[in-house]
Amino acid sequence: MNSLRKIALNLTDKNARKVSRTIRVHNMQTAKNIGIAYNATVRSDEDKVVKLIRFFKEERKNVTALGFINSKKPEDMPEQKLNHRYFNKKSLNWLGLPKKSDETLKSFVNQSFDILINLDLEGENLPLLWIFALSKAQFKVSAAHPLLEKYADFMLDVSSKNDISYFNIQLKHYLKIINKKSEEYEHV
Q1: 143 sits in which H/E element
Q2: What is the pLDDT of residue 42?
Q3: DSSP state letters, 18-49
């Protein structure tokens, strides 16, 4: 791991420790607002994300998606939609972390999602890791990965297939059966 990445990870940890949020286990019955953060650079994954968004909307959930495009070129940016935003390398500082001045990212991180889903299955995308770590979401869900475990409230081991479609199937399954009576506590 290079030294800039180590610095970025340490800064992420330091800032994440300052985040005050209420942790509450949510399921398909209790969740109303869902956030999805994902790597939108791989266009084939975009369809899988759209299917997940459609599923949640059919379940009458408010969904906000944020996709990262690993490029600085404006022509690589998809069209922004009402609840589907994108950001690219122009929104990052020299360490590869989101700039604090970026309103789209600040708004997403500060939104009180019932559930935040990180679809970066490898857990290696620094901007998505930063967003996941600093989010005020009540229930954070991701694929099992050592870099994500200190920020996630619930992790799914999808290493056998490592595919967003498989992750989505597992996610839907567990959100339907998970904790019918949720417990709340304040994390400071």
Answers
A1: strand 139-143
A2: 83
A3: T--EEEE---TTT--EEEEEEE-SSHHHHHHH
Helix, strand, coil share of the chain (percent; to 5): 35, 25, 40
DSSP 55-105: HHHHTT-EEEEEEEES---GGGSPPPBTTEEEEEGGGB-TTSSBPTT-HHH
Give the mean model confidence (pLDDT) for residues 93-105: 90
Does the pLDDT at position 74 exceed 70?
Answer: no
Question: 26 phi and psi, to 5 degrees?
Answer: -115, 155
Here the contacts of 89-95 (C-beta below 8 Å, separation 24 or greater) are 91/127, 92/127, 95/4, 95/7, 95/8, 95/11, 95/126
C-beta separation of 145 from 125 below 8 A: no
**Antiparallel, parallel or unpaired: β 184-187 and 154-156:** unpaired
CATH of domain 3-181: 3.40.50
Q: What token pair was written down for 26?
A: 């949510």
Q: Would you tell me how many other CB atoms lie within 10 Å of the CB of residue 64? A: 19
Which residues contact residue 49 at a Cβ distance below 8 angstroms, ignoring those fewer than 6 apart?
36, 38, 40, 65, 67, 119, 164
